Amino acid sequence: MTVITCIDDLHRLYRRRVPKMFYEYCETGSWTQQTFRENSSDFSRIYLRQRVAVDMSNRSTRTTMIGQEVAMPVALSPVGLTGMQHADGEILAARAAEKFGVPFALTTMSICSIEDVAAHTTKPFWFQLYVMRDEDFLRRIIQRAKDAGVSALVLTLDLQMIGQRHRDLKNGLSAPPKPTLANMINLATKWRWGLGMLGTKRRQFGNIVGHVKGVSDPSDLMAWTAEQFDPRLDWKKVEQIRDMWGGKLILKGIMEPEDAVMAAKIGADAIIVSNHGGRQLDGAISSIRALEPVLQAVGDEVEVHIDSGIRSGQDVLKAVAMGAKGAWIGRAYIYGLGAMGEAGVTKALEIIHTELDKSMAFCGHRDINEVTRDILRVPRGFSGDWA
Length: 387
Prior knowledge:
The protein has helices spanning 7-17, 20-26, 34-41, 82-85, 89-100, 114-119, 135-147, 166-171, 181-187, 191-198, 218-228, 235-245, 257-265, 287-298, 313-322, 331-340, 342-362; strands at 47-48, 63-65, 68-70, 74-76, 105-107, 126-129, 152-156, 248-254, 270-273, 303-307, 326-329, 376-377. With 387 residues, the chain is an alpha/beta fold. It has a single domain (7-377), classed as Alpha-Beta Barrel (TIM Barrel). β8, α13 (257-265) and β9 form a beta-alpha-beta unit. α1 packs across α16 (331-340) and α13 (257-265) crosses α14.
C-alpha cells in the first residue's frame, strides 16, 4: 500500500489511474512550457528564515478570503474537465472543500453543472465565468449561478482565445474521449476510471449541453466552444458583467500592475495574479514573480490572491508572506481527485495544511495573519529590475 506524504505521491498515483488525454490536459502548458515549469520552480528560489526558541503552541491558519472565513488561505481553482479526471469530479471536489473549510470555484467548462454541484453541497460555492460571444447564454448562466446561491463570481480575463496547447491538439482532447484506436488502447488500462465513468451520467460539459441551441452531441459542443470565447472582452465588458452579476467579483488572470489598477478601479473584491497555469501566453513570467509589483500597485485597494504553480504548503506560506491574501490550487487537488476521488482531494488539502502549519511555526509564527515578508529570503531582482 502506498504511503502518501506529499503532493508528488498523489501525482504518481494520479498518472497511473487517469487516461493519458486528461493527464496531459492537466500536466502540460502551452508552446514550449517555459511558463508552466517556472510557475513551480520559481518558488524554490525563495528561501525561508528559521527561528528558534519560540512558542509554537496554539497555532492557527484560519483567516478570511473576500470576507469568507476559511480554514487556511487556500481555494480550489476552477479547472476545466474536472469531471473527466474522475467521475463526478466537480461534485467530489466541492464536497471535500466544503468539509475542509476552503472555497471551491466551479468552472464554466465543468462536466458537472452548476445545479449538480449545488444539489450535492450545503454551503455556497464560487463560480468561474468564461465570457462567450453568445449574449443570451452569458446572461442565463449568470442567472443560473445566482439561482444556485453562488456567493462570488470569478471572471477569467486571460482567455479570449485558447493558447497553443500542443498536447491537447495531438491528443484530440474531447469530452467524452473520441473512440480512436489510441484512446481505446489507453482507456483499457484505466479500469478504475472506466468503471467510475460507467456509473455516472455526467460525461459532457454540464453547463453547456442543454443550455445552448443546436448543441446536442460532443462534436457540436466542441465546435461551439472553439468559436465562442469572446475576443472582444475588454474593461467595458467587465463592467457590464459586474453590473449584471451584482455580487462579489473576483478577477482572474492579472499579471501586470496596470491591469491590477484597472481591476481595483472598477470595484473588484479581489484579483488573482495568474497566468492560467502556463496554459495561455508561454514566455510570461511566473505568477510568484508577478505578485509583488501587483501588490505595490494596488496596496489595500483590492484583495490580491495568487494562482499557478502552487504545489505545497510552503508555496502557500511564501505567497502569503509576500502579501497574498489567498493562494489557489488547481493541479495539486486534481492529482488527489484523479488518484483517489473525494478522499484524494481531502488528502491534498491535509498535506498542504500540514506543510503550511509546520513551516509557519518553524519560521516563528503561530497565526497566519501575522506572517510577513520578514520570514523570507528573496533574491535581488526576483520581481523585476528588467532592462
